[in-house]
Amino acid sequence: MAIVKMQKLSICANKKNRKAILEALQNLGIVEVFTDGIEDDELHKTDTSSARAKYEKRAESYDRVLKLLSIYAPEKSKGGLFGGLEQVSRDEVVRIARNRRKLNEDTVEILRDEKEISECMGMIVKDRNLIESLVPWQKLDVPMNTTGTKLSQVFIGTVPHSATNETLFAAAAKDLPEPVAISTEVFSAANEQTCVSVVCLKKDAAKVEENLRAIGFARPSQLTDGIPSATTIELEKDIEEQEKRIESLKADIASYSGKRGDYRIAADYYRSRAQKYKLLGTIPQSQSAFFVEGWIPEDKADRVAKLLTEEYGAVVEKEEVREDETEPTVLRNNRFSQAAEGVLASYGLPQHGHVDPTFIMSIFYVIFFGMMLSDAGYGIVMFVACAILLKKNPHMAAGTKKMLQLFFWCGISTTFWGIMYGGFFGDAINTIATTFFGYTGDGVLKAVWFEPLADPMRLLVWCMLFGVIHLFVGLGIKGYEVLKSGDIVGFISDILAWYAFLMGLILMLVPSDLFASIAGMEFHFPAFVGPLAKGLAIGGLIVILLMSGRRRKNWALRIALGAYDIYGVTGWLSDVLSYSRLLALGLATGVIGNVINMMASMFGGGVIGAILFIVIFLLGHTLNIGINALGAYVHTNRLQYVEFFGKFYEAGGRPFIPFQNANKYVEVKEER
Q: Does the pLDDT value for residue 285 go beyond 60?
């Protein structure tokens, strides 16, 4: 409904109070603090990067601790996505600040345990890999790193193919004189690799090694100093010990779960301090004073100025906005319309001095959403679910709360249009009555207005009428802004002329045979309407033709620009036709719902039929409400962004970003 008027404050205070003042402003969370406009060669800034980095690191350590606790000591979810931040008192934050050293010691212990767990898991992986590599060598009864004795040479390794004792002996003994003193053994054989050992005399070692390399012999990559079977047993025992140690460390971490709430407060405490020191490093200061500026809602400026003056002896002055400054935008709407502020913000905030269209947009938004989803059953499910979530989670995030409030109102609108169209989970009531109760009448639930499936062209006409109203309201808002700027000629030329031109065309089109053939219905106006329509159309046409290019002195160019502007009526036609999506999505919801009910009733009215009906009904309508609610949301946004906003709205406002506590886990509730 309105953009909150902002006040710029200039603050000067004793340097010794700068941290206290920043902390007070941070706790208030209603002032956007900045220092960009303060320039003086005699002022300097303090380097706070090391302190800021220290606090950020502490906050990150608490984040890691909380993540570990969620793994090793999970807690019951408190509202999940909709729960919001945990509410704590200022006294609790003060208590945590006093006990922060002990809590910091806890984080050191927990993170040390985490590091040891990682080391133990690394050892387990290493042991298992070694065990896996020893599997083919379990029959070897000597250490794998054995190379021989005083008189013998031992070769332990693999060949890259399947081999037997005979083939291995033949390959190793090749070109050796008789008698050959060689012993071979195959421990395991596979298509790709065979594990073997060859023992020979020292004097034959060089030739045997040459022969073995000729067939691809290679020593193992891991040579253990123990017998493989015994080493495997030792490794398995080590794995068991490592696993026990890991469980002990996990239990030790889980023992800190009772302090989880304190860790959350501490994490946000350090995160907020880091943010404070980040700002502190940008503040210009002299030897005895510091200077900051800030934006604040005008109705809160006196309160903050009084606090800073009385508590900290600061000098606070109200300043006028400079030409090169852009005031932040804060919207203020009633309970109904504030739910749609997120829709507007996603497109772009309005600038100061312009209209906040949230209130008007929210009315059309809710109506159009309901017309698209248009099923009373779906609407009831939607607004009841949103009402329950809002009631059970009063402290949810502001953005999530607004989203649920918006869908609550959209659910009510959907219920209304469902009643008007006669849709309740499609034709569920009629289908149930016919299938399970033998009803043969004309229908149990009837439309209060009319059924779109039976008369779609009638609904199309109404959709276009709503579209024209929507577009005309947008043009009217533009006219209000033009009048507000004092441009009377522009209001007549760019607003009233278009109203006259478009209304004339509409009044000529509606009673025509062409429109009657398209709409399937005839409209008859009194006799005077025809000449009036022509007069409006021609008068508007002439004004647009002559005045659209009024800023040009060349009359030929002015007429050309006017003619081009008149061509823009095709854009109006396109915009009006865009509202046919109200019909398309409304019909889609009803048709799909009816098909689901027909499929569910195919199994008859027996017990099995009833069970299958319930299953298909629940699955089908759950899918239908999800898909069509998403479609209604997307296309309702499009009608606002493209058609409605395209007639008048210019974004460009920047959001209000107050200096406040960096709350990730908790929200401090205190009197302000």
A: yes
